[in-house]
């Protein structure tokens, strides 16, 4: 079993990500996002899901809330959604492709 928290921290630390609804929508619109990670209580989940669907961007649904996602990412604040442009050596994209 892969430790998703470890993968998230590696992605945030070493990769290229945009945190927050506004920035996630911006990079999803221009097609530079490879993956969107969303907490289960993301207030704009339906809007972001529709946008990701139009651009064929996979979404990883984090099973917990935005406070836990922020903590898992090593942040001292809640993170409801973020977009990954470059995974920074983590295997987060493979997790999504495997259906994890």
Structural description of this entry:
There is one protein chain. The chain is α+β, with helices and mostly antiparallel strands. The protein has one domain (4-89, 92-96): Ribosomal protein L30/S12 (60s Ribosomal Protein L30, Chain: A, 2-Layer Sandwich). The chain is 44% helix and 17% strand. Strands 1-4-2-3 form a four-stranded mixed sheet, with helices on both faces. α3 links the parallel β2 and β3 (59-61). α2 (21-29) runs parallel beside α3. The chain is globular, with a radius of gyration of 12 Å. The model has no long low-confidence stretch (mean pLDDT 91).
Gist of the model:
The protein is built from 5 helices and 4 strands.
What do the pLDDT scores average to? 91
The share of residues in helices is 40-55%
Unreliable stretches (pLDDT < 50, length at least 5) are: none
State the total count of DSSP E strands.
4
Classified in CATH, the superfamily is Ribosomal protein L30/S12
Name a few traits of the molecule.
100 residues; alpha+beta; 60s Ribosomal Protein L30, Chain: A; 4 strands; globular
């Amino acid at each position: 079993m892969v430790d998703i928290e470890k993968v998230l921290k590696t992605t945030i630390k070493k990769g290229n990500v945009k945190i927050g609804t506004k920035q996630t929508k911006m990079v999803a619109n221009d097609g530079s996002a490879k993956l969107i990670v969303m907490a289960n209580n993301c207030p704009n989940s339906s809007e972001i899901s529709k946008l990701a669907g139009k651009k064929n961007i996979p979404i990883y649904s984090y099973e917990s809330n935005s406070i836990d996602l922020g903590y898992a990412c090593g942040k001292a604040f809640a993170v409801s959604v973020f977009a990954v442009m470059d995974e920074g050596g983590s295997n987060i994209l493979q997790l999504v492709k495997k259906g994890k």
